[in-house]
């Protein structure tokens, strides 16, 4: 799909991902638990990203994350800090993005909503044609 001069691709992750606090707690419990948690989350993201098909980013992208939480219990920064990292790393691992550095990620935006019946994360990736 195109929006303005940019190609837009989207995918949805059902449910929520653990927050930064859960990652910290896992790492404190055992040195390998944080890595295990991240790997599990990346698998969830890659499963959802399969809907992108053969799409691959050719240039820098801008990402919009729409975080639909079941309630307002978690702080917004707790919701998105670990989630963005996991999503971007998974997209690199799945070869949708070449890397997740400054040259490849032009920027990102977080939008927060509450949906008690259908918590999810919607990821929009905008790739400029220029």
UniProtKB/TrEMBL annotation:
One Gene Ontology term of the biological-process aspect is: DNA repair
InterPro entries xrefs: RusA-like_sf (IPR036614)
GO molecular function of the protein, one example? magnesium ion binding
Q: What Gene3D superfamilies has UniProt attached to this entry?
A: Holliday junction resolvase RusA
Q: Which domain of life is it from?
A: Bacteria
Q: What is this protein called?
A: Uncharacterized protein
Species name: Agathobaculum faecis
């Amino acid at each position: 799909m195109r929006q303005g001069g940019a190609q837009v691709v989207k995918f949805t992750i059902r449910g929520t991902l653990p927050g930064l606090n859960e990652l910290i707690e896992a790492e404190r419990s055992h040195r390998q638990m944080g890595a295990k948690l991240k790997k599990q989350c990346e698998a969830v993201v890659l499963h959802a990203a399969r809907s992108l098909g053969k799409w691959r980013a050719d240039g820098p992208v801008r990402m919009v994350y729409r975080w639909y939480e079941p309630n307002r219990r978690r702080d917004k920064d707790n919701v998105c800090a670990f989630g963005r990292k996991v999503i971007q790393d998974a997209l690199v691992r799945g070869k949708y993005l070449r890397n997740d550095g400054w040259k490849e990620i032009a920027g990102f935006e977080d939008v927060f909503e509450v949906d008690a019946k259908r918590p999810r994360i919607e990821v929009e990736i905008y790739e400029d044609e220029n």
